[in-house]
Give the backbone structure.
Amino acid sequence: MTARIGVITFPGTLDDVDAARAVRYSGAEAVSLWHADADLHGVDAVVVPGGFSYGDYLRCGAIARFAPVMTSVIDAAAKGMPVLGICNGFQILCEAGLLPGALVRNDKLHFVCRDQWLRVENNTTAWSTRYDSGAEVLIPLKSGEGSYMADKPTLERLEGDGRVVFRYVGENPNGSRSDIAGVADERGRVVGLMPHPEHAIDALTGPSDDGLGMFYSALDALGVAA
Amino acid sequence: MARVVVDVMPKPEILDPQGQAVAGALPRLGFDGVTEVRQGKHFELEVDDSVDDDTLAKIAEGFLANPVIEDWTIRRVEQ
């Protein structure tokens, strides 16, 4: 059986094509999902890709979270479907309440665009089992509002429960609390991160192929051989 | 019809780099004595009389503001 992984396109999404390419590289079938269509077309997992959905109007992800497709994603996530939010997708999942916290403007106001080392802090989520715990991976980061914020009790709970999935290595690029680059929900099925694993799947187009592990991990979680 | 104003501000503990940038620019423009600037959003809503305060609170808390990072206030203004 070939896993079917949906990739959502909102108005203003940019990285749906690369996300679909990464899904295909991993051996799964990429299924295009449209923001206005609540039907998930029977997919086994969903990627919410990066970009500037609805022009980032109001707040990043604030309008996208109310799109018909997101209602279905929220329902599916409650039933355990693996969901990955990348960059703007991470912002959307936070706005939707699938992940805790929020992403705010980078400190010093700089848009950061660079290849960024991350440390894998939790290799038990649906999107990170292919990594060794503590492994360092090189993944492009490109965002202006990537500073992860949550109140102190939430941060303590995330740390205590091991729900920080990726952490920035070296200088903090955007002011994120506790150098957090990505977090998971309580069950480890929903993961969001600011860096772009879909841009790091081969040496031709990215700085590494370190990002591919996230997509392989999802196939493992779905019980599909990759 | 009534005019309703919703003001949304970053919570005090949330870093406000935009406000800091504005504050940093003022001395360069020759304006001294402004010690802090916080930048938020101001919404003006024209609403039917049938829209009650509870509904307005839901609009502010559930959409116009993100309570994780922002505080909000609502007031009805005379026109």
Summary: Helices of chain B lie at 17-28, 53-64. The interface with chain A takes residues 10, 13-15, 17-18, 21, 63-64, 66, 68-69 of chain B (CB under 8 Å).
